[in-house]
Specification:
The protein is mainly alpha-helical and 178 residues long. The protein contains seven helices and no strands. The longest helix is centred in the middle third of the chain and has 33 residues.
Length: 178
């Protein structure tokens, strides 16, 4: 007996038991259409490519739903990643302001932020007074983000003795191995 000869209940049972796939069943039905349709003329148009795509999609196994703990852990990692990105953007913004006024700031967040803080505090630097307070607030925001990231890393069990300079060179802290 061909797969195309099965009832819907029989075909569904074979699919559930893993004895056939949606793609095999589709192929059998398309072959039957190709052999009988020239005589029966039951189809105006056949779309085998769409039938194959639908069959492949039907065979995709669903991913198990994450537990609440897994979802929470994933959310914490996303939050950390977002804070890291925001921190980097803020540092680059401050560095860009300095460049606009002809000031070069060293590469690396730790040294760069220290240099920017000195430039803001130096009344002789070319940074306009109008910009000093917002830049100081941005520095405070960066320090706060760094503290939040370190706290989050503690909660995630990541090494907290991370040197920010290592992160600037692309070395992200790794969770401890089990």
């Amino acid at each position: 007996m061909s797969l195309a000869d099965l009832t819907l209940s029989e075909a569904a049972a074979l699919l559930r038991e893993g004895k056939t796939s949606s793609l095999e069943l589709t192929e059998a039905c398309l072959a039957r259409i190709d052999s009988l349709d020239p005589t029966l003329r039951a189809f105006l148009t056949t779309t085998p490519d769409l039938a194959h795509a639908a069959a492949r999609a039907a065979d995709i196994k669903p991913v198990a739903v994450k537990s609440i703990e897994q979802q929470g852990l994933q959310a914490l990692h996303r939050l950390r990643s977002g804070w890291m990105s925001t921190r980097t953007r803020r540092i680059n913004t401050l560095r860009g302001f300095c460049r606009e006024f002809g000031l070069e700031v060293r590469v690396g967040a730790v040294q760069g932020l220290a240099a920017i803080a000195r430039l803001i505090a130096d009344d002789r630097s070319p940074i306009p007074a109008l910009l000093r307070v917002p830049m100081r607030l941005a520095l405070e925001e960066i320090r706060l983000m760094e503290a939040r990231i370190e706290q989050l890393e503690r909660e995630l069990g990541m090494p907290v003795d991370t040197k920010w300079e290592e992160l600037d060179r692309g070395y992200a802290p790794r969770p401890p191995r089990a």
